[in-house]
Amino acid sequence: MQIFNTLTRQKEEFVPQVPGEYRIYVCGPTVYNYIHIGNARPLIVFDTLRRYLEYRGNKVIYVSNITDIDDKLIKKGQEEGTSMKEVAQRFEAEYLKDAAGLNCEKPTVQPRATEHIPQILDIVKDLIDSGHAYVAKNGDVYFRVKSDPGYGKLSHLNLDDLESGNRELRSRMEDDLKEDPADFAVWKAAKPGEPAWESPYGMGRPGWHIECSAMSRTHLGKTIDLHCGGQDLIFPHHENEIAQSECANGCEFARYWMHNGFINVDNQKMSKSLHNFFTVRDVANLYGYEPIRYFMLTAGYRMPLNYTVDLIESCKNSLERLYTCRENLDFALSKTDFGTDETLKEKAAEARTKFCTAMDDDLNTPDALAAVFDLVKDINTLSAASSKAALEAGAAAFDEITGVLGLMYNRKKDEVPAEVTELVEKRAAAKKAKDWASADAIRAQLGAGDRTVILSFGGSLGARRVNEVVADLCAWEQKENKPVLHIHATGQYGVELFKNLEKEKGFAPGESLEVREYINNMPELLAAADLVISRAGALTLAELEAEGRAAILIPSPNVAENHQYYNAMELQKAGAAVVIEEKDLTGEKLISTVSGLLSEPGKLAAMGRNARSLSVDDSLDRIVDALLKLVKTP
User: What is the DSSP letter of 211?
Assistant: First the structure.
């Protein structure tokens, strides 16, 4: 693998000191607030690097610190009337929550600065003893920059230029504690009201740069393979780390350096003053965490990355394509009949090769994503005719390469007892054969006492293949070890119904109510649903009768007489509907109507021979209220 080494400004073969073992240090956050989207980039980028190195069979010792002492932390504690420690603990917890949401693996070691005061003081002593640092008259300890002839080698800044600027700075200094303005603090004397530790130089606290030097040496040794961070850390933070570490240790600090580019917002630098400052939590609350991770992988890590609402929406849509592809693979593998084509095996191998070639080229995640979508195209094209072995090969390659990128981590994986799976398959077969008595008996055997409610909706906004419905219902029956009650609401009415239900407390997707989108007007959908709620224009009476479904049909008064669908009058003429006028519809009436279809074993299927129609028109709120009461009934 080749990486761009900031130290040499060129791509180099990434060779660790110990073959097969990489020692990596990544600068972590100063936990004084929620992390912003710029902080998320190194978090995600270098987590992806770690995943790839491990995928290629290497051991990675990955250290990323928590800076829990800093001027910003002290100021925040003072402003809140709390303490630096309380602020740090609170926002460390929030940071870890965001990191987990972004699917970043936990570091091998995640040290805190305040837990390494003795190690910091050891380095300070070594620097003083070797003449690279000195104690100022107030108890501060400064690193003597001119004592290091290599200073500036990472940032490629000329020390003479720095000195020119420092002369101007020196003229403005009121109290000249330093020998030279370029010198930087490795230990700071205590100020009133600030946290402090005992030291040979008086009470004080560590400087910012010395913390990482101490934590890196403690957990990775004096020379590490790779040091990572954002471009903003190159100077002065990383430059100062190199200087103090190499002068204290007498050897090279880090063999390779990687730095990620900045995040802009709408082509402007992110800034609170410009009101374009976004935290990870802000964006995740709107779009979820996974689109953020995907977004960070869409450009080379060294390039600037521009955040816009359109781009994050695009990332969300791209993820939807990946999930749809993987779920279609699951469905294809759940069949009993397979094709004979083996081409997908070759395509899976090609995808792995393309992916690794991209990642070996300085962590080229855009090309790696292109390899993923090439495989998606091949899967979608070839899966119908593929053999089971070819489908399994495609699924394995898909899971491997998306896993390295840290994507697809919201898939549901449930272990199901074999006997439950067998019963569910028998019930599905009975329903398909319209053997309602057997289907009801199996439902009772699975456990008729409790029920899991699934609400789905379809229509023009439906985004998933309808044949997933049966697989979904089977998965829920298996997971809950009991049957589900599947209520399907179609069209725009179903969308509005879903939105109202989603607002109700206790109805979070994945708990008692599972919300999914499906395209309607398909036999698989009707075969899966226990009860259909629809405008009469969305499903024909014939379709309902053919599948023996129970339904609440909402009349569509604007449907023309010659239309293929049925309005309320046509339903009534057909003799298969009970029409309840809107003025007579109450929540209690709806409850009794729907409960009558569900309360007794076998009654739902029996009543499904005829559609049931309720004229609701604008009474959506009453429908919502009634359904909430119904599904919450034990």
Answer: H
Q: At what angle do helices 343-360 and 365-382 cross, to 10 degrees?
A: 170
Question: CA-CA distance, 278 to 94, in Å (whole number)?
Answer: 15
Residue 213, H or E segment? helix 208-220
What's the token pair of residue 356?
């690794």
Cα dihedral 219/222/223/227 (nearest 10): 50
Rg (CA), the chain: 32
544 contact partners, CB below 8 Å, separation of at least 6: 526, 532, 551, 553, 608, 611
Burial 14-31 (b: 16+ CB within 10 A, else e): bebeeeeebbbbbbbbbb
Q: How far is CA 192 from the centre of its chain?
A: 43
Q: Is 1 exposed, middle or buried (0-12, 13-18, 19+ CB in 10 A)?
A: middle
Rounded Cα gap, residues 530 and 526, in angstroms = 8
Please state, in angstroms and rounded to a whole number, the distance separating the CA atoms of residues 141 and 143.
Answer: 7
Rounded Cα distance, 467 and 519, in Å: 9
Peptide bond into 111 cis (omega under 30): no
Backbone dihedral angles phi then psi of residue 457, each to the nearest 5 degrees:
-145, 155
**Could you list the mean pLDDT of each consecutive 10-residue stretch along the chain, which spans 634 residues?**
98 98 97 96 98 97 96 94 95 96 96 97 98 96 96 88 54 68 95 94 95 98 98 96 98 98 89 79 92 97 94 92 90 86 97 98 98 96 94 96 96 58 70 69 53 39 32 46 48 45 39 35 43 48 45 43 37 35 40 43 34 34 45 40
Sheet holding 305-307, edge to edge: 268-269, 263-265, 305-307
CA distance 433 to 263: 58
Distance CA 570, CA 253 (A): 83
Pairing assessment for the beta strands 612-614 and 550-554 based on DSSP bridges: parallel
Q: 187: how many CB neighbours lie within 10 A of its CB?
A: 29
State both tokens at 553.
């049909």
Percent helix, strand and coil across the chain, each to the nearest 5: 50, 15, 35
Strands 263-265 and 305-307: parallel
Separation CA 469–CA 450 (nearest Å): 21
Name the nearest CA neighbour of 625 among 589, 596, 600: 589
Confirm if 213 and 245 have CB atoms less than 8 A apart. yes
